[in-house]
Amino acid sequence: MIKLNLNIEINYLIDVNGADFICNIHAANTHYQVVSMENLHINQSIPYRIDKDLKHGNRYLRFTALPGPLKIIYTATIEVAHYRIRSNDLMEVPVRNLPLSVIEYLYPSRYCQSDRFIRLAIKEFGNLPQGYSRVKAIQEWVRRQVTFTQNVSNSNTSALDTFIEQQGICRDFSHLMIALCRAVNIPARFTTGTDYGANPCLGPPDFHAYVEVYLSGRWYIFDPSGTAIPMGFIRLGTGRDAADVSFATIFGNVQSQSPIIHAVAVEDSKFGFVAPYYCEEALSTDDERPLPYNPSGN
Amino acid sequence: MIKLNLNIEINYLIDVNGADFICNIHAANTHYQVVSMENLHINQSIPYRIDKDLKHGNRYLRFTALPGPLKIIYTATIEVAHYRIRSNDLMEVPVRNLPLSVIEYLYPSRYCQSDRFIRLAIKEFGNLPQGYSRVKAIQEWVRRQVTFTQNVSNSNTSALDTFIEQQGICRDFSHLMIALCRAVNIPARFTTGTDYGANPCLGPPDFHAYVEVYLSGRWYIFDPSGTAIPMGFIRLGTGRDAADVSFATIFGNVQSQSPIIHAVAVEDSKFGFVAPYYCEEALSTDDERPLPYNPSGN
Amino acid sequence: MIKLNLNIEINYLIDVNGADFICNIHAANTHYQVVSMENLHINQSIPYRIDKDLKHGNRYLRFTALPGPLKIIYTATIEVAHYRIRSNDLMEVPVRNLPLSVIEYLYPSRYCQSDRFIRLAIKEFGNLPQGYSRVKAIQEWVRRQVTFTQNVSNSNTSALDTFIEQQGICRDFSHLMIALCRAVNIPARFTTGTDYGANPCLGPPDFHAYVEVYLSGRWYIFDPSGTAIPMGFIRLGTGRDAADVSFATIFGNVQSQSPIIHAVAVEDSKFGFVAPYYCEEALSTDDERPLPYNPSGN
Amino acid sequence: MIKLNLNIEINYLIDVNGADFICNIHAANTHYQVVSMENLHINQSIPYRIDKDLKHGNRYLRFTALPGPLKIIYTATIEVAHYRIRSNDLMEVPVRNLPLSVIEYLYPSRYCQSDRFIRLAIKEFGNLPQGYSRVKAIQEWVRRQVTFTQNVSNSNTSALDTFIEQQGICRDFSHLMIALCRAVNIPARFTTGTDYGANPCLGPPDFHAYVEVYLSGRWYIFDPSGTAIPMGFIRLGTGRDAADVSFATIFGNVQSQSPIIHAVAVEDSKFGFVAPYYCEEALSTDDERPLPYNPSGN
């Protein structure tokens, strides 16, 4: 079990009309990622609400900010005890056995136009043995094709662009990997969190984007940009692609500052100190365990 | 109340490997669209299953087809008593009051890149009074810009393409209207059904694509292509755009024939015969009535 | 006659491999834009060559830069006596009468995908009386649709993007206007020069991009971004779009600084001082006066 | 020397307004491709004109068709004695030595967005030895990536689309190869002609699209789709991409029929009968032999 202290601070200057916010900065609270303590501070005296997306476990902080400075500080202690499994034991789930709630992650989305990658994906990955190793092969392919480069992509950049221009950041790597998985009928989704142990060349700790792939009835973590240690990720939100998951969706005119993020492993009174490390096993923080599909049981 | 008899027949030739199907040809069963009788016939002796998407009411027929001919016949009697309201009474719901389940219909999707239309939509529609009339104005704008033309668009065609090339079919009109609604923060979704009373120039009855927009706490029907009588639509599925909703998603190699569809109004023993007609009121077949957002109740 | 002193300074830092340059910073020398004096200074002792594109009058400075700092200073005195004509006298030239050398400016190019705008252009401009006023109407339409905004477009941005996102700089305005002209069979080309009298809000004098349209047998200046005084433009290069015309095309790795540009009207000993002003007449600096097309003369 | 008889018949039905045509169905007449006899028949009694593009040797038949049926028959006897050279002797020409007239074939165009392929092309081909073998490697790469498939691409399809979807026809193969060549600074252009010896599975003889690449001071033929025998190609036109070169550019409303094309090798009284065959040597039909670039000669 890994215990992490998380600290997120975001700052805005709101214009005279105020602005509505939908923030996804709360750590997901699942059976495998337990938020043991959390605290939210907003510098404005305004009502807020936290909506929980029961399907994904995402939590959304919603409020209407007043004109002027807005500072939000979220602190939490999170205990992550991943569901771990020998990666080679993981199998792809045939489409016929996928639960309905997972089917949408087979379909193309705004930034993951999997429909256009079908021929490519079949050619590159169609003959590989199915299972974890095939997903790994897709991840490695993306990592070979794309070079981590900042300031070359933007909020318009999609998997198509990244495939052509072969550069981008974690968001772009993730979109391309997702598109390729879906193109060979492997459900894949976009997940945001905080990174851990990122290469210091990339700057201070930051929000991170990675991929979850549905194998053997559960969503497993993949980190196509390879810039951080997956075991240290704290999951915030998950969705079809970056269109669904943003740490702050803002309706109004505001000036933004860069978020300030700290995520550090700390000692647990019972389990002691465990630092996240690269491991061979597959990791999941996901609760979703739908019943197996049983056609004859209709 | 309108009573409709629906008959859908779809035919395929499946190759030697068989094929998995996810069909959305069952009429949605809601409080306002009641399926009073239905029957499904598949020519192959195979197990099947019907999954229900609780969020939208979509029903998915799932099975694995054997090699050879496949014929599916779905017949149903549907009683549609729309929720009807004076359209001018309908108001937009401020983002802050939208239920979480509706928020995703504000975000861009595969074929509705609303993020790229924001400036345009604000310029064209930003100063109009909010409410039903604004949505109507968006629909009329789409109808003026786009000419109904068959065989010029395909499964790749998105709202961007339709906006530029200004031609397409019901699917394309719908994608463009949805993108523009979302661009001014009005939730909009893509709905499939069967048409009714379509201009005979457009050929025999067919599957149809139209739009549902969230106003005053409910999803209301809009038909941007204007090719049929909304009161006669039988809703099959709804989703973010055509990527989510297809009458048949097929995993495998098959040859397809055009579907054969009949939807006719029939006499009801109690209410008599009512033919669908163009009406001024707004229509909804949607059950979803989420509780109002109440921030102070946090 | 307007006499202008032009001063262009560009600075680079060349890496250890050196770099090949093709610069288009020499003022075009035509019957109507006479370069009476010019001087080129390069800080490196390297051979160079000036190639002249006989079709357009563009002059290209070509050299191979050595590693280290590179400074190029071009100074010139230019006497511009535009070919001027009452704009309402200008007529469109039917395709059948266009000289072959002009035909390519009817075709789509990298950033001006006129083929995709045909329906739109016909709808918006197809019924307008042909001639100068129609081109003016296209220019005004672009100016209404697009808002001058810096730092939102880049070297990938095409007319399609500008049409959708409705913002950009002089390059983007020009691409969109060109695409729309070509879509209704009016030859249009992309021209670079130096601006004059630009709104000080837009910063210091800079390179400028504008449009030349072929009417009544000659290329006339249009300035869709409307940010400067066309009479003061000094033409450098012209081509199908920005892919063809760049003040510096560089093959190698270099660091760039912003160019420093001065263009000022000065007193002429004979004609005195004339400052550029907005005028109603149409202006051309173009020499090209092909013979009229005469089919029977074959 | 190969002697070919060419017969092209094209048929249209012109609507009541007539239509302007610019046809490029005349064989190019160069030092290496000599048109020894030709005949043009138009069923309408209308004036026409043949414009010659001096730069490329393209010939354009221009006329205004009257309402009603239009039939054009072009017959010619063409003697092709390619400039032939051992392919391994061909070298790339450094940008600094390229003649100005060739430079435009380094730049991106409507269907060959070479600017977006730079990273990819450098990664795949940047480390290969320069020269003919590198161009060959690009051709082979395109042939491996793309599968010849009819009816999946259209007049909008660009190199980007073909790269992603990996299927298309000769036009699409050519656009992708051109884009990749330009991305590594090798001039490449789009050439149309008639095919010869095409795989009968692909249907009757047809217009063909292939590539010319500038090596060692001359344009050499490459056939990325590999569907026919290059030695039997009769060159009609050449340009930056398909936007520039069409066998018929039509301004007006017409109904088209498929062109009927015959190209057969025939016996020459002096040289006898030589059928085109696949050969190892590089082939050119191009006249253009610009003087070498000589910077010190400025």
What is the general shape of chain A?
Answer: globular
What is the CATH architecture annotation of the domain at 83-239 in chain A?
Roll
Evaluate the radius of gyration of chain A. Answer: 19 Å
Main interface pair?
A: A-B, 38 and 40 residues
Overall mean confidence score, pLDDT of chain A? 92
* Number of helical elements of chain A: 5
Give the class-level CATH name of the domain at 83-239 in chain A: Alpha Beta
The total count of strands of chain A amounts to 18
The span between the termini of chain A is 41 Å
CATH fold label of the domain at 83-239 in chain A: C8orf32 fold
Helicity of chain A, in percent?
10-25%
- Which consecutive residue ranges of chain A, at least 5 long each, have pLDDT under 50? 290-298
Portion of residues in beta strands of chain A equals 35-45%
Helix-strand topology string of chain A:
EEEEEEEHHHEHEHEEEEEEEEE
Estimated structural class of chain A: alpha+beta
